[in-house]
Give the backbone structure.
Amino acid sequence: MQAANPRRGYILGLSAYVIWGLFPLYFKLLESVPAAEIIVSRVLWSALFGALLLLVWKHPGWLQELRDNPKRFAVLAGSGLLIAVNWLTYVWAVNNDRMLEASLGYYINPLVNVLLGLLLLGERLRRLQWIAVGLAAIGVAEQVWQAGSLPWVSLVLALTFGFYGLIRKQAPVKALPGLVVETWMLVPIAFGWLLFHPEANSAHAEFWTTSQAWLLLAAGPATLIPLVCFNAATRHLPYTTIGFMQYIAPTLVLILAVWVFGEHLSDSTLIAFMFIWAGLVVYSIDAWLSLRRKA
């Protein structure tokens, strides 16, 4: 087994989260392409690029393990649908000036994971975890009260990614083979969408002579490269450290939304963010104290 290299782990982990945090810059370049078509291209090119990557980056025995546990295919089909909904919502939010809501969703996500553990896995929450979840709930409730409706983009992103992680726990398949199987299961849906949308940009040969065609093609590598970095980082760093690093991506999305793309950060939204941030601080303190007790 390769010895842990924390320096390499930090470089790989930071690379993954910075790429994810800068994704809005990429999707804004595809603003003229409908969100559904972007996701269809992302599925198709991720499936192809992932299969090629598996030929190079070997994962011995993963296919035989899936054959020995056929129920895992159904689990991966479910997780694939969840991640597709997550991708679609995120791309739609970026290209419809709802990046603040997207950022809020990924800030909420760790606390949603804690709540899912309580409700579905029978886990018991520690006192500080209850406080963290409560603060996040106040932040969401404040948004509902001010806006008069649920921040559905934030909740869909947090819940789909939370349930995605929960489902993947039921199918212990390594990150890259799991994502490749998920995307290949979505390929028939992607081709079906193209079949029923002949007016789509990517359905016309002349589109593939434009720069936007190359940007769509890049969706495969752009999806898988940060995942490979993340997967490698987990081999060199404690998972708690990886957990703290996950706040980098939504922070970058927040900065891009306000300072680059000029989204308005209202007082009510700022108050909601402050409650979420307070919850994350409490959550992080609890994780650090738990780590110290184990040590």
Remarks:
- The CA atoms of residues 128 and 285 lie 8 Å apart.
- The chain has 13 helices and no strands.
